[in-house]
Amino acid sequence: MTSPGELALCLSTLLADPMSAGADEVVSALDAAAAAGCGGVSAWTLHVLAFDPDPAAFREAAASRGLSVDVVEAAVGWSSGGGDAGPDADLTLEVAEGVGAQQVVAVCLDPVLADAAAAVRGFGDLSDRAAARGIRVALEFLPWTGVPGLADAWALVEAAGRSNGGILLDAWHWQRQPGGPCPDLLATLPPSAVHLLQLCDARPEPGDDAMAEAMAERLVPGDGVVDFEGLAAALVGSGATPLLSPEVFSRDGLSLGPEAFAAGVVGACCASWPAP
Prior knowledge:
This protein is 42% helix and 15% strand. It is α/β, with parallel strands linked by helices. It has one domain: Alpha-Beta Barrel (TIM Barrel). Helix 1 (23-35) links the parallel strand 1 and strand 2. The radius of gyration is 17 Å and the shape is globular.
């Protein structure tokens, strides 16, 4: 069984409104992650800066609670920036460096890729800027965007050809990607391909609004239809050893309060994900 100390909990899932959370709410989320026994956290750039304009202050606040800041989310704009990483890349990387994170997440928010070659160059530029700071970049596929599934994400990362570039595999997106889960493809990826695995579960049938479901109606691992044993087997087959990061956006879960919700999520993740 996985231990809580191996997990980097996504703080945004503990915030009632992640887009407008203030410093006090961020502190409550840090307290909840620490109380649940997590070893680290994944933080949005927005929340780091909401806590304090100096990212080092967030790093110190986390460290005082026994937490590392392992991941910063997320760099956007690289997929439509005409071949460069876009204007927010340096801010994302500066925050990551300031909090001591060695991993950032990249996402494509465009519904389609207007220029796939430019997106490849943009991801490559982002990866190069990150490499200069000793940081890795994980591309997260989102089913409602121009990078909707694992095959699309890996094709883009592989085309960019950067040694610090890889994949973020979110279990909810894995279940909802076009065509559904693809363990055979996952098992063929290089060991270094999957940097980060976000743990959560999904209902049997998709809702009418994929983004709304993803941001408010996920389930804790074990309560849905994600085949965690199959997913783990595919990752083992590829030789991947990703960082584990619980990410359960749940309106119902939040009603319990941050500490109780975090404890339940961490317990479910530890029970559902096999230890290496």
